[in-house]
Amino acid sequence: MIEVTPKTLASGAHVKGRSHWLVAFLCASLLGAVATAQDTGSAQLTINADQPGSTINPHVYGHFAEHLGRLIYEGIWVGEDSTIPNTRGIRNDVVAALKQIKVPVLRWPGGCFADEYHWRDGIGPRDGRPKRVNASWGGVDTNAFGTHEFFDLVEMLGAEAYINVNVGTGTTQEMMDWIEYMTSDSQSTLANLRRENGRDKPWKVTYIGIGNEMWGCGGNMRPEYFVDEYRKFATFVKDHSPDTKLQRIASGPHDDRYDWSEALMANSTKFMEGMSLHFYTLPTSDWKVKGSATQFGEDQWQSTMERTLRMKDYIQKHSAIMDKYDPEKKIGLIVAEWGTWYDAEPGKDQGALYQQNTVRDAVVAGVNLNLFNQHSDRVRMANIAQMINVLQAVILTDKEKMLLTPTYHVFDMYKVHQGATSIPVELQAPDYAFGALSVPSVSASASKDAKGTLHVSLVNLDPKSSRQLAITLKGVKAKQVTGQVLTGAAMNAMNTFEAPNTVKPSPFKSIKRSGERVTVELPAKSVVVLEIKR
Ligand code: AHR
After folding, report:
1. What is the pLDDT of residue 41?
2. Catalytic site residue 213?
3. How far is CA 380 from the centre of its chain?
4. Which residues, listed in sequence order, are joined to residue 55 by a DSSP beta bridge?
5. Which helix (H) or strand (E) holds 361?
6. Cα–Cα distance between 89 and 109 in angstroms, integer?
7. Which of 274, 423, 449, 512 could be cross-linked to 334 through a Cys-Cys bond (beta carbons 3.0 to 4.6 Å apart)?
8. DSSP 3-state assignment of 262?
9. How much distance in Å is there from the Cα of 111 to the middle of ligand 1?
10. Ligand 1 — pocket residues by CB below 6 A?
């Protein structure tokens, strides 16, 4: 993707003195459309629909549910006797909302919690299950939600399962037993125990995550130590059916821990199908004072944008390491935790990581999903952290009430990219600058679905100014262009339980067509998805 910043443009435009006019003229001619972009303040996007791209794995739109705060208990599990309408204890309203956005895959049970979870605690009659302190996040887990309940949810959603096994306080034997319990169709004691507990046929497990954040809460390991642990655990991930190949995901790096990727890739490519990457967007980049979810000014809007865009660098640099050892790109980069992380709301349980969600989060979601679409050759799955009531949630609940966050609506608008073919785009956009920081003002990605319909997702990162964007379509004759837009009156516009529909998508009308060109006006702080029918 070509990105041209105003600084680049200014170097041509601000040249002074007679002898420099020629240079300035040549620069302007060479940059051509770029100069236009600067002069008019507009941005330009070329969609190369005539060039091949890779498939956008639907799992890039995946989710993550940890035993943390009010995600599992209250957010999903209310129990069969609850007055909140439920099916076998699982909230109906939440399931219906998640089906609407086509949740393709769900990671469970953690997170840090995964490395203290013992699966046997969560099977058998619920009143006999042990109650355990949740040492990572506080409170006592009743284990009412265990393996059977998780798969009930996953099957209701039509999603695939990503089970994260315990390396930190678990054993290879415990992991092997769990895999056998879940996936064996034999008459073994473990498979029969599953039957006694109400499930005859094995479940479909797609991914086995081996450990979580092994450089941190998973055991504070050094990469050279974890590599051997990983190889040992990966060896004992056994397939129990000829047509199932469990995909093993190594607990990978966070942010710029390139040494971690290097160690794993140099020593374990034979034993992995995926390597995870975790990266959170904190407005301040300071884990002690992260910034408020709702009370922020333009300085923190801008620093949030600057930080979230680091995802691009992390994807590209970790991918470059992967390319060295896996040039055929057999191993997926799995962005298993991403999203905003703010200070917990004052007065709320600080360990529960509950945060509100605003238009800023919608913009962050749009930017990151565009990056995943653009890098679909290597990024095979991503799991927003986390699905309900925790961090950048798509759903918030308050007893019987439920609301859909701005982030939810972005997932709904972007679901058209799931399984489509990514189309290379070239974007030239002026920067949005505030204080000392500047970032490209527009983010874009495009894909073509099985029917040949194009979808273009666009984000205007500038919270104050709308941006004109001229789109050139190569290799496509557009018969019809329609769209949807999500924005809000203020940077912190949000949905509340009292006003749940303040931020929601609406039809996007600001579209002009002329031949191969489509011109749109992106409102300030907006996410737009265009549908281009041929
Ligand atoms: O998503 C919350 C926590 O963030 C996860 O448990 C952990 O993996 C990460 O540090």
Report:
1. 84
2. yes
3. 11
4. 421
5. helix 359-374
6. 18
7. 274
8. helix
9. 5
10. 66, 110-112, 212-213, 337, 385-386, 391
Per the annotation, the verdict on 273 as an active-site residue is no
Mean pLDDT by runs of 10 across the 534 residues of the chain is 28 29 35 38 94 95 98 98 98 98 98 98 98 97 98 98 98 98 98 98 98 98 98 98 93 98 98 98 96 98 98 98 98 98 88 96 98 98 98 98 98 98 97 96 98 97 97 91 98 98 98 90 98 94
The protein residue whose alpha carbon is closest to atom 3 in ligand 1 is 111
Q: DSSP letter at 73?
A: B
Instruction: Identify residue 180 by its one-letter amino acid code.
Output: E
Specify the ligand 1 atom closest to the Cα of 113: 6
Is the separation of the CB atoms in 531 and 508 below 8 Å?
no
Provide the 3-class DSSP secondary structure of residue 247: strand
User: What pairing do the DSSP bridges indicate for beta strands 517-522 and 467-474?
Assistant: antiparallel
pLDDT of the residue at 15? 27
Helix or strand run (H / E) with residue 457: strand 454-460
**Closest C-alpha residue for ligand 1 atom 8:** 111
Of 160, 213, 273, 306, which residue is the catalytic one?
213
Q: Which two tokens stand for residue 270?
A: 């034979």
Cα 36 from Cα 468, distance rounded (Å): 12
Q: What is the pTM of this model?
A: 0.92
